[in-house]
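The methods section describes the discrete structure representation at length, but only in general terms. The central task, working out the structure tokens from the amino acid sequence alone, is never made concrete. Nothing conveys this as quickly as seeing an actual entry. For illustration, here is how one protein appears when written out as sequence plus structure tokens:
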Amino acid sequence: METWQDLSALVKERLEAVSSSERGVFAAGVAERLMSWHEALPEDEQADFTLSLRPLLNSVWEGALGDSTAFTAINRGVADYMLSEYCHNDGQDGPDGADESAAAATLHAAHAYLFGCTDFTVWVSDRGVEAVDQHLEYLAEQEEEDIPDLDEALIAELQRQLRDLDLIAERSKELRHAKFGLPIDTSIRLRVELRTPLSSRD
């Protein structure tokens, strides 16, 4: 039986082999699931900085699915973060909002779209894995019953990521040049065929 570490290595291998456009869609999907989970938390447990990144994540989706005009909004969103108090080298003495899983995944997804680097997308994948551990800790704190086994939950997340990559691969030819723009009808169709299933937390 494959361990979650084996599956994590396989996800990384797959990400290294696909186009930057495919990686961008994958990163948006993982970040979306983390953002949706965060948005579903009780209001007093939500982080303002994380919620403030929702427009940036929406722009990443638009750009990844073929709207080249989204580049400006993504570029501006990353620049706003870089100039904010949340981008710092103060360690634990500085604000930690950008280290929250959904926030970090969104920022990495935006960087993946802008620069096409594999590392940013791998970091999004890693954030998805880390968030599973954090979610189980959260359930334990809420004294929930029937908390899943950690290894099984990590394996399930990585299997989900591999299924995401399979789904994206089916549209690799269309996505290959998505960053430079796709016909509007193609972008609309891809939103249905990719954004909807990739965003599902099931």
About this structure: The mean pLDDT is 91. Residues 118-141 form the longest helix (24 residues). DSSP finds ten helices and no strands in the chain.
